[in-house]
Amino acid sequence: MVKEAKIIYRNEAETEEIKFWNNKSYAEKLSIIQILREQYITLYNKEEEYAESRKRLRRVYRIIKQV
Question: Shortest CA distance to 11 belongs to which of 22, 3, 19?
């Protein structure tokens, strides 16, 4: 097995990362954020706190007819 390493300068890496995220749709970005949130919750054993906060953060929407 051949191991390779590629050296990239920080400003090049940042521009590549910006290009990567600019090519993603909003739905893909949101799904990635949700995956990261779930990983954080399980990694730091925050399931109970997350369940409690979900109760407090429920939203109520009303549809108002505009004229």
Answer: 19
Would you give per-residue pLDDT tens digits along the chain (67 residues)?
A: 899 998 889 999 999 999 999 999 999 999 999 999 999 999 999 888 888 777 766 677 777 887 7
pTM exceeding the 0.70 threshold for the entire prediction: no
Amino acid at 33: I
For 41, other C-beta atoms within 10 Å of its C-beta total 15
Q: Which helix (H) or strand (E) holds 41?
A: helix 26-43
Q: Distance between CA 62 and CA 53 in Å, rounded? A: 22
- Phi/psi for 41 (5° steps) reads -60, -45
